[in-house]
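#onboarding

Welcome to the new folks! Below is a worked example of what a typical request in this channel looks like: someone posts a single protein sequence, and someone else replies with the predicted structure as tokens. Don't worry about understanding the tokens yet, we'll cover that in week two.

Example request:
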Amino acid sequence: MGLSIKNSEFTAEEFERFAAKVRIDLTALTRLLDRPGFGEGQSSVGAEVEFYIVNPELRVQPINTEIAASVQDPQLTVELNRFNLEYNLSPQAFRGDPFARTERELLAAIRRIDQHAAPLGGELVPIGILPTLRQADMGAQVMTDEPRYHALSKALLQQRGEPFSIHIGGNDVIDLEADDVTMEGANTSFQLHWRVPTNRFADYFNAVQLVTPIVLALASNSPSLFGHHLWDETRIALFKQSIDSRPTTKKNWRHPSRVYYGNGWARNAWELFAASASLYPPIIPLMSDEDPMAVIDRGEVPELTELRLHHGTTWPWNRVIFDHTDGGHLRIEIRSMPAGPTPVDMCANGLFIIGAALAVLDDIRHLTSILPFHYTEHNFYRAAKYGIGADIIWPHKDQIQLQDRPLLTVARELLPRAREALTRTAVDDAEIHRLLAIIEGRIETGMTGARWQRQITECFFRSRSSDDAFRSMLALYMANQKQNIPLHEWTLSP
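Example response:
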């Protein structure tokens, strides 16, 4: 969705022509994926980090366009809401210390952006949902004034035909309605891109799908919204419901939400693109002049602009990405992890999910044959709601019967396997030891960003108002975050 458009109004004919071009792109993609050697190349990782912008009172500060104009960095982009920014980190070859390089780049970017934000009364915070966010902070007035966001909001609302409805349970319960998509902007994430071999894409993708619930629970950092204690990773429920364009009154079949975990174990990459085209109507029908078949006939790689644009307006938690650069390749975009608490914590999450996926990769076809897909989806939502306290249904290659197991027990068993799998890659042992020690620290202390936020806030509740308690907790969070101290080493004394 990082595109620049001039219009937010489109005709029925434009939508029809766009949908037809998407179908042509899908046919072209079939030919491309069949091309010998397509997608071969070195493994790499990249990432996007979304931020809140806060003022000195630790409330949201809606100045993203002003900061971006001052920084003038093509890797920095504005987000849906005016109090959010996104930084796109440089891709790194998956060898040596890729996450250490990412961490250094991110720390430098935060320092540089904060230097531009400070004179405007702003500061960046990487956190899944800002604890001091108020319902009054949301609404059409905070949407970044760019046509693509107006078009997105209008199209999703028109498809739904009524306000978006948000209901989230937990220690508390919240019920809301919204007339626009700005509630989606309450979520900020750390999105990891992993380039994988095209000829084994389905195996890699399914491995990531299987292990995502475990990593999500250990990475959870979004336990509250508008002063309500909800899920350990409340973003998962909020993101899905805040842009759920399905009409509730429709009597015929109801397609899946545009935010979804999957429709089954993947058999190939092409079907993931095809499903998004068949299940979801277009939102922003921008047309290119490219003839993808002619490009393929010349032995070149087409951009498949329409297919990529449409696919970018569906939001599976793990998403296949087609990239026409570097001879063309496929990536897995891992989208469920929250922003924060620190750059080093986010890098540890990234290395762990790759290591965990590599640990199950050799057995993935057997594991997916004995675990029906809906149980993995069940694991994902269990992990989002209960965090490291969740029970999940985890397959084992020697297992006869599936059963519930504590997520932390599975994580404890998976960690050494992830470490071993990573030692067989080109990543340095020092990088593996440094970052997986952070994951081990969370497992052994039973501490995540969500648990830390909740426990510190509860301490402050004893002597302060709810509003002051959340603000005081956030001040402590930001002090730790600025030092880049791993979360499991943070003190629990306010």
